[in-house]
Design a protein that fits this description.
This protein is an all-alpha fold and 328 residues long. Helix content is 69%, strand content 0%. The chain is globular. InterPro entries: Annexin, Annexin_repeat, Annexin_sf.
């Protein structure tokens, strides 16, 4: 399949025929070079055309193939072919169903998406799973700090605040300082959770990002560094992760990927999840941060270090996806 061709109806139909043939004969490796280069609109066209041609949703066909084969690459390929909001809905459900709740996967969704996108994710989640995502989050482990932060973030998305105010950012930065490291003493007794949760429930992600930027400008270091200055508790640990995900996402994801590649994380699905979900958002920046921090290109790190923890087809798919450069 020629990924450089003009994506005409004829090209789309040709690719659908090849997908059907390759999937049926378990030759999905042959699909990777082309499908990873298709943007979301072309992938949507492929899915719609496949349905017309074969009377079956392409995702269902790929999932049936997966059920007859243990290769996880098929699951990642299925996720890649979904619309972004559908993919996030599936990832959210997976995070809630994995036994131990995957808080980081949920945080990545709620901090990395606009409010309009969260609305679509909620709709897709309800349509596919006949459940309310917000209610599922509210109902699990109410004593866990990540849960309390997620509830606050979900509330903020409902307000659809889009304008960023420097005045609010300055006031919020000062409030974070006064209720955290600025209280004095050794650790000052910890961060005032109620203040943080109120702020997270009322401010958009863009506004919070501006607040953290203003905090660094005023006090000379990132807010996440202030959280590390003294020994706090579980809430502060969770807050530090959330702040990094909001303020410096490329650094956050580069660290996650490095932990996956080195096998030092219990979040075994994070490598595929991050690369699939960030490929069309900021993967170029993540790759730059990764290479600057760890002295090796991301694709080379995956190839060098993952020989034993994933099979070759899965690794090839992830490397191909990580190595694509999408126009901004």
């Amino acid at each position: 399949m020629d990924s450089n061709s003009v994506f005409s109806v004829q090209v789309c139909e040709k690719e659908c025929r090849e997908i059907h043939e390759y999937a049926s004969s378990r030759r999905l490796n042959d699909l990777v070079p082309s499908l990873v280069r298709r943007n979301r609109y072309e992938r949507k066209q492929i899915r719609e055309t496949y349905l017309v041609m074969y009377g079956e949703d392409l995702i269902n066909h790929l999932q049936k193939t997966q059920s007859n084969h243990t290769n996880q690459k098929y699951s990642l390929l299925s996720l890649w072919m979904l619309e972004p909001h559908e993919r996030d809905a599936v990832m959210a459900r997976n995070a809630l169903e994995d036994g131990d709740i995957n808080y980081k996967a949920l945080i990545e969704i709620y901090t990395g998406r606009k409010s309009s996108q969260i609305l679509l994710i909620n709709q897709a989640y309800q349509h596919k799973f006949k459940r309310q995502l917000d209610q599922d989050i509210i109902s699990f482990e109410m004593s866990h700090p990540f849960q309390r932060i997620l509830v606050a973030l979900a509330t903020s998305h409902k307000s659809h605040n889009v304008d960023v105010s420097q005045h609010i950012a300055k006031c919020d930065a000062k409030r974070l300082y006064e209720t955290g490291e600025g209280k004095g003493g050794s650790g000052g007794g910890g961060i005032e959770e109620s203040v943080v949760l109120e702020m997270f429930s009322k401010r958009s992600i863009q506004q919070l990002r501006q607040t953290f930027s203003t905090y660094k400008h005023i006090y000379g270091h990132e807010y996440s560094k202030s959280i590390k200055k003294d020994v706090y508790g579980d809430f502060e640990d969770a807050l530090g992760i959330v702040v990094k995900c909001i303020y410096t996402p490329a650094k956050y994801y580069a660290k996650i990927l490095h932990s996956c590649i080195k096998g030092t994380t219990t979040d075994k699905g994070a490598l595929g999840r991050v690369i699939v979900s960030r490929a069309e958002i900021d993967m170029d920046e993540i790759q730059r941060v990764f290479e600057n921090k760890y002295g090796i290109e991301l694709k080379d790190a995956i190839l060098c270090e993952n020989m034993m923890i994933m099979d070759k087809p899965q690794r090839d798919f992830i490397v191909a996806l990580a190595n694509i450069h999408y126009p901004s």
